[in-house]
Amino acid sequence: MSVRETYEDRTEELLRPIALANGVEIYDVEYGKEGADYYLRAYIDKEGGVTIEDCEKVSRALSDALDEADFIPDAYILEVSSPGLGRALKKDKHLEKSVGQKVEVKLYKPVDRQKEFSGVLLRFDETHLTIGEGDAERTFERSDIALVRLALDF
């Protein structure tokens, strides 16, 4: 397990009771470096969407818990927010909630000279993901997928 994964897992452990106490669920936790700064991002969600107040309460409680646990030696910027409307679907639990919804799929390498596809998420398993549009279905190897996210239709 990498240092990044360790930090994300330990942060998620600290976040679980905080999320429960505030009526939100943990969508994802990310730790990484951007430019000269490290960021620790916690994405929270709830039915009907999270508010700024939800993010503020969770951020304050998580900040205190992180200060007490003190397992990240580098200085970092803590951000707590909603995953947004065009949220990335990284985990199986994200995909499960999104079956039947329109998604965008971006591949590492082109297939039929195309790297981006969209359609309704029909099904997935450990190794494949299938989207459809009308009667047409397209199945991708999950290892070929760079990103899956909810499609934004305006």
What is the topology?
Layout lengths: L2 H19 L3 E10 L2 E9 L6 H18 L7 E5 L10 H7 L3 E10 L2 E11 L3 E6 L2 E6 L3 E6 L4
Helix pairs in contact: 1-2
Q: Give me the oligomer status.
A: single chain
CATH topology-level fold name of the largest domain: GMP Synthetase, Chain A, domain 3
Beta-strand percentage range: 35-45%
**What's the CATH first level of the largest domain?**
Alpha Beta
Total tally of structural domains = 2
Shape, please? globular
Helical segment count: 3
Radius of gyration: 17 Å
Give the SSE string: HEEHEHEEEEE
Labels describing this entry:
three-stranded mixed sheet; GMP Synthetase, Chain A, domain 3; 2 domains; 154 residues; alpha+beta; SH3 type barrels; 41% strand; five-stranded antiparallel sheet; 3 helices; globular
Protein architecture, described:
- This protein has 154 residues and is α+β, with helices and mostly antiparallel strands.
- It folds into two domains: 79 residues, RimP-like superfamily, N-terminal (GMP Synthetase, Chain A, domain 3, 2-Layer Sandwich), CATH 3.30.300.70; 59 residues, SH3 type barrels.
- The chain is 29% helix and 41% strand.
- The chain has a five-stranded antiparallel sheet. A three-stranded mixed sheet has the order 1-2-3.
- A hairpin with a 3-residue loop joins strand 5 and strand 6.
- Helix 1 packs across helix 2.
- The longest helix has 19 residues.
- The termini are far apart.
